[in-house]
Amino acid sequence: MSWRTVVITRQCKLDYKMGYLVVRGKDVKRIFLDEVAILVIENPAIAMTGCLIEELINHKIKVVFCDSKRSPTAELVPYHGSHDSSLKIRTQAKWQDDIKGAVWSEIVTDKIRKQTEFLRELGKESEQELLSSYIRQVELLDETNREGHAAKVYFNALFGMKFTRGADIPINAALNYGYSIILSMFNREIANMGYLTQLGIFHSNMFNHFNLSCDLMEPFRILVDRYVYDAMPTEFTKEMKWELWNILNDTIVIDKAKQTVLNAAKIYTRSVFEAINDNDVSKILFFSMR
What we know:
CATH superfamily of the largest domain: CRISPR-associated endonuclease Cas1, C-terminal domain
Distance between the termini: 23 Å
Helix content: 40-55%
Strand order of the largest sheet: 1-5-7-8
Structural class: alpha/beta
CATH class of the largest domain: Mainly Alpha
Radius of gyration: 20 Å
């Protein structure tokens, strides 16, 4: 079972040999490919062989490329993640609005519930009570935008009344970087299961290649929020980026069992697809912190 997140930070050449990722820099390191779930190419001055790229795809390893500022900017997504991807894509294109609306309402409700629980842990009683009332007000497709109202209350409770998500500050840099990691994780799972990331449940932006990933990731944002709140950064450092990648190896509970975040995302994603295809939202499996 793959579980490792490998981050390549220095100029080197990446090659493949006998089941191993070979990192050739000042010295040579070998990493067993079967253990790797995500490979992050943080330094643009890195060369990769075609043989390695082929094996990364065969092993369904998510490869994320960063720009010169070491921020995620692109990723390697295979054309065919599943043997029956053509059938699944045809099915996905025919998903009915009613079930999509019901699933989105469940996702939004769980996201707000997790935000409420976090505020309760922090002793922010008035804000958590307000978010609790929003949960009861979520309608089909969240037509009254309880998610948006909850987000404003939630972030102000965490980072202060002057905080805005659009501000160019270290807190937002950390949140955005963390969210991009969560997004990439769901891109990997969706592609591996044979579906298209472009065709969303709720998100439908014609310029967004990851509409479905943006839908599914919502309840997992809380993992990044918790880290950034605890860190409360005054600058966004290289070490913080590595720590955010390590969130994927944290342990959470889903379907009454402890799982890494990576494994939980797989279980959750599969359950959402089953819920839509079987027209039964009760099949969705959400995670809890403990």
